[in-house]
From TrEMBL, chains A, B:
Belongs to the aspartokinase family. Gene3D superfamilies: Acetylglutamate kinase-like (3.40.1160.10), VC0802-like (3.30.2130.10). Keywords: Amino-acid biosynthesis, ATP-binding, Kinase, Lysine biosynthesis, Nucleotide-binding, Transferase. This is Aspartokinase. PANTHER family: ASPARTATE KINASE, ASPARTOKINASE. Pathway: Amino-acid biosynthesis; L-threonine biosynthesis; L-threonine from L-aspartate: step 1/5; Amino-acid biosynthesis; L-methionine biosynthesis via de novo pathway; L-homoserine from L-aspartate: step 1/3; Amino-acid biosynthesis; L-lysine biosynthesis via DAP pathway; (S)-tetrahydrodipicolinate from L-aspartate: step 1/4. It holds the Pfam family ACT. Residues 274-352, 354-415 form the ACT domain. Its EC number is 2.7.2.4.
């Protein structure tokens, strides 16, 4: 008997019929003798509907009140799923985040989980019940409802699995695992049976939106074995088969049985690059440029500062394309303040990254990457590296070509 | 400065534009220096939508889980209304029932309020905030969400007004007050400026669906001055005018300034009558007949047992028409058990009642009522009386005629 946490996304919970499918799948695990906790998202479209109404009333909805409203989507889901289980003769009980309680800080709309009380849940499991807990939400010390931000149900599921010391957290979604790259770009892309949590973290933060980055961090910090698998399979497929499907996020580097240097190619099409030229090179210049950008709530990704020449330097950074115009507006003000010569930008750039824990012990990954791109005639605009990742910024029009060439160069189509 | 509770129904909260209207009206009261607590219902249609999904999953939805789901409608309303107030510069905060906390018993879908903690609300009011509390819901001792049943937001509002010792509870609805009878039946029907809570209780329980009966009971038990008034007026109409509009439910008989013997004519078209004939007249016969009916969850209204002849008696009672077939089914079984001769019924009967605290001190109300019906050639099938009400059951086809004749006979069209 194992303790298993299941998480189902909005598409899996998208209609009453789909909820019945989820119930059948959950019941199958329970029937096999496992204790099961289920963390569902809101029915697809519901959160957007609620945010839409809020925005009709307030351009910038008040965060506390927005959480009050948006948390109802998951509350409806848990109630419906509990009923679907009761309807097929399983004992089930649903809880909102505050009922467990899932304690968070008070950063409404992007709260962080601080603690989870497992008393009630453990008693229910002991009594043979299937426990259904609303994802995406919690409660702060003052009893206000909080939400964890978009995709927060993944984080809820992993955090609950950690608090309950679950044997595995199964994230059911509309893809059947993590791929070496996006199969829509490279048809030879291959599903990975395992990936280390560090690689997963890089893949998630680089735009492979299988799991929210924060949930991967949580899985890593608390060493929660987490599996990404499909909710679109027959709910009554054999449990033995289902239990090894998808992609397992592991914490042992040697579980990377495939011993590949590179695990995957991640990419993010919608990047924009901004350069501020001829900045007097004085201490604090980076802060004076990026401080106002951060204050405007614009997330900055890659940052480069050139070698200074004649006491002047150039400073380049990237933002997501949707925030390009806003960032350029901020920079116009900053330009005068820091005494820069000019500001230029390019909103048609993309980021391509090779990711793999194997590169730690293998030299030459960077040179192979750069040679491959060079052979395809692709100019590199910026480079950024971490221990297990090398990212390059390139012209948007070469993105697919770069991904395909790199996928082939690192033999990722081969198991 | 007064402490005022406002309650708004689903129609008043039916769209984001209407919610903005509610906010404008609430702000007007707050601007005039009053402390305001607002109790809104779910947006119209929302509760039915949620129940509909529940029934797609479970024919008889589990009550606890149904409350989990249905309580979200009001939670969305309070959040949106708080935003609408914040958007026009008023300080406002919303609470779900459990956050206040509004404690109830554990009778899910029809819970009763046991206590209300006023600490948080009083602190907010003291800080100048408008406090918005979800109607219709509470929380039981085990932290489960409960709902009060249909129309429960009225009860929430009155109960909160009682707990807070509010100066007045204003129930905003889509009618502009309580009338001497339904204006759709008698065009001369007149709005009452005041009505005693006992009269209101009889009117409410007799099908004048302006206020849920339980909310009137609450108002009566805790002597909460409660006013029914229209939410369809211009939200910016003068506060002086609005404050005396509608109908005030009062607790002093002498506030019945109009000194009328009869306050109104209530009626209920959809009644059905069932007679069980030739029942051996032994102790326990009423119990043996009505026990099984109650067990089948069928509400019985009027009950008559005839004088027994030759040790046999007839027993007649009424149920709402929608439960007629079900009740007849139960009676077929009962018939054999009690040794009755036969069961007969009539599903086309209606109840008409005259209501008024004035009849306590005036003889002759009953005789005037019976004479009026007799002059119209209307046969009386059953009679039932209380201290402030006389009800008769008549053939459905005479209902409008009876109401009009009685309205005129008791001079109700005259102020």
């Amino acid at each position: 008997m194992a303790l298993i946490v299941h998480k189902y996304g909005g598409t899996s919970m998208g209609s009453t019929d789909r909820i019945k499918n989820v119930a059948a799948r959950v019941a199958k695990w329970h029937d096999a003798g496992h204790q099961v906790i289920v963390v569902p998202s809101a029915m697809s479209g519901e959160t957007n509907r609620l945010i839409g109404m809020a925005k009709e009333i307030m351009d910038q909805p008040d965060p506390r009140e927005l959480d009050m409203i948006c948390s109802t989507g998951e509350q409806v889901s848990v109630g419906l799923l509990a009923m679907a289980l009761l309807a097929i003769g399983k004992d089930a009980v649903s809880y909102a985040g505050w009922q467990v309680a899932i304690k968070t800080d008070s950063s409404f709309t992007k709260a962080r989980i601080q603690s989870i009380d497992d008393t009630k849940v453990r008693a229910d499991l002991g009594a043979g019940k299937i426990v259904i807990i609303a994802g995406f939400q919690g409660v702060d010390d003052d009893g206000n409802i909080s939400t964890l931000g978009r995709g927060g149900s993944d984080t809820s599921a992993v955090a609950i699995a950690a608090a309950m010391k679950a044997d595995e957290c199964l994230i059911y979604t509309d893809v059947d695992g993590v791929y070496t790259t996006d199969p829509r770009v490279v048809s030879e892309a291959r599903r990975l049976k395992t990936i280390t949590f560090e690689e997963m973290l890089e893949m998630a933060s680089l735009g492979s939106k299988v799991l929210q980055s924060r949930s991967v961090e949580f899985a890593g910090n608390y060493r929660v074995p987490t599996r990404v698998l499909s909710s679109l399979t027959d709910p009554l497929m054999s449990l033995a088969e289902e239990a090894v499907s998808g992609t397992l996020i592991s914490f042992e580097e040697d579980t990377n049985m495939e011993q590949a240097v590179i695990s995957g190619i991640a990419f993010n099409r919608d990047e924009a690059k901004i350069t501020i030229l001829g900045v007097p090179d004085k201490p604090g210049v980076a802060y004076h440029i990026l401080g106002p950008v951060a204050e405007a709530n614009i997330e900055v990704d890659m940052i480069i500062q050139n070698q200074s020449v004649d006491g002047k330097t150039d400073f380049t950074f990237t933002v997501s394309r949707g925030e390009y115009a806003k960032a350029m507006g901020v920079l116009e003000t900053v330009k005068a303040a820091v005494g820069a010569a000019s500001v230029s930008g390019d909103a048609k750039v993309s980021k391509v990254s090779v990711v793999g824990v194997g590169m730690r012990s293998h030299v030459g990954v960077a040179s192979q990457m750069f040679r491959t791109l060079s052979e395809e005639g692709i100019n590199i605009l910026m480079i950024s590296t971490s221990e297990i990742k090398i990212s390059v910024l390139i012209d948007e029009k070469y993105m697919e070509l770069a991904v395909r060439a790199l996928h082939k160069a690192f033999d990722l189509e081969k198991a």
